[in-house]
Amino acid sequence: MTNAPVAPILVTGATGRVGREVVDRLVAAGMPVRALTRQPDTAALPESVDVVAGDLSIPESLDAALEGAGSVFLVWTAAPATVKAVVERLASHAARVVFLSSPHQTPHPFFQQPNPMANLHADIERQIAAAGLASTIIRPGMFASGAQLWWGEMIRARGVVRWPYGAAETAPIDERDIAAVAARSLSDDAHAGGDYVLTGPESLSQADQVRVIGEVIGREIRFEELSPEEFRHETAASWPAPIVDMLLDAWRATMGHPAYVTCTVADVTGSPARTFRRWVTDHATAFMDGPAPTR
Ligand SMILES: NC(=O)c1ccc[n+]([C@@H]2O[C@H](COP(=O)([O-])OP(=O)(O)OC[C@H]3O[C@@H](n4cnc5c(N)ncnc54)[C@H](OP(=O)(O)O)[C@@H]3O)[C@@H](O)[C@H]2O)c1
Q1: Pairing of strands 204-205, 169-170
Q2: Is residue 231 helix, strand or coil?
Q3: What is the pLDDT, as a whole number, of residue 295?
Q4: Relative to the CA of 12, which ligand 1 atom is closest?
Q5: Measured in angstroms, how far is the CA atom of residue 14 from the centroid of ligand 1?
Q6: Which pLDDT value is given to residue 291?
Q7: Which end of the chain, C or N, has fewer beta carbons within 10 A?
Q8: 77: helix, strand or coil
Q9: Which residue is closest in CA terms to ligand 1's atom 22?
């Protein structure tokens, strides 16, 4: 008697921070993985992965990737226009979706400010439910990699972080922990219906996060507090204004509150969420002299 082949798991956002880690975990667990990217030639994914071209903004371009797929990891980084058409396509091919959303339903001030990203996530969740697609919703808070994105260059170049709301606390989550929960959810049907708010294990002010980076790389890093207006001014040329507004609103609202912390990573994976210090230690080169890391 031969076992029926296991349907491939389709990972969207497979070349991104979370998606790559999801792919690595599924491959390590021996699962057949199909990866979606707009640029297969430069995707640089593990050899055993079936890399398929597709674009979320062109729903019909997903058909080849969805053919015979079992569960789908959905990371939405495209414009909202094609959400309904894409979700309907997923529902007609796949048995289940694991969607990377955000904690927009969590009653903590940090998550309850006007937020276009949260609105989009809520809409995608509604479309998934309307399409009758079984789902697991994964809701990470602030990614630890934000530290690299926001402060890496300032620290490398000048050893100074000029930033607003230094006392605002968040619980940065390591992308590897998000991926571990996603991989578990994708490979085990018992997670259908799961709704998981994921955070790092500790509440840390932004100034303390900068201090941790300094301790790990052995360099004193000055934190220079900016007013919200100074921050708007300094980011005006390089950041979209709605993103700046979203962040300022969230940091202002959370002042005086510890960050929301869950133990869901441990509950789902059996291992506690990695600390921010651990994330910094494993990405220390992002803050040190030398060529900037690409991953
Ligand atoms: N940052 C946070 O603190 C935070 C918190 C909660 C939730 N989130 C959510 O996390 C998601 C971002 O995840 P990430 O950081 O892992 O992503 P990322 O590193 O920014 O990578 C983006 C991925 O999306 C793919 N992509 C972009 N446009 C696409 C399109 N039109 N069609 C198909 N694929 C497309 C890219 O693939 P190719 O270029 O290879 O096509 C790439 O793999 C967002 O939905 C965000 O809202 C973020």
Answers
A1: antiparallel
A2: helix
A3: 57
A4: 34
A5: 9
A6: 59
A7: N
A8: coil
A9: 16
Ligand 1 test: best mutation among 51, 58, 77, 110, most atoms within 8 Å of CB?
Answer: 77
The predicted structure's pLDDT at residue 5: 72
Q: What does pLDDT average to in each consecutive run of 10 residues of the chain (295 residues)?
A: 79 98 98 98 97 98 97 97 98 96 97 93 98 97 98 96 98 98 96 98 98 97 98 96 96 98 98 98 92 60
Instruction: Extract the tokens encoding 285.
Output: 């080169």
Strands (E), the chain: 9-11, 33-37, 50-53, 71-74, 96-100, 134-140, 160-164, 169-170, 195-198, 204-205, 222-226
Residues 18 and 178 sit within 8 Å (Cβ to Cβ): yes
Ligand 1 atom with the smallest distance to the CA of 15 is 43
Phi first, then psi: give them for residue 203, nearest 5 degrees. Answer: -90, 125
The neighbouring-strand residues paired with 196 are 138
* Strand, coil or helix: 255: coil
**Element housing 21 (H / E):** helix 17-28
| pTM to 2 decimal places | 0.96
Query: Which residue owns the Cα nearest ligand 1 atom 18?
Result: 16
Contacts of 218 (CB under 8 A, 6+ apart): none
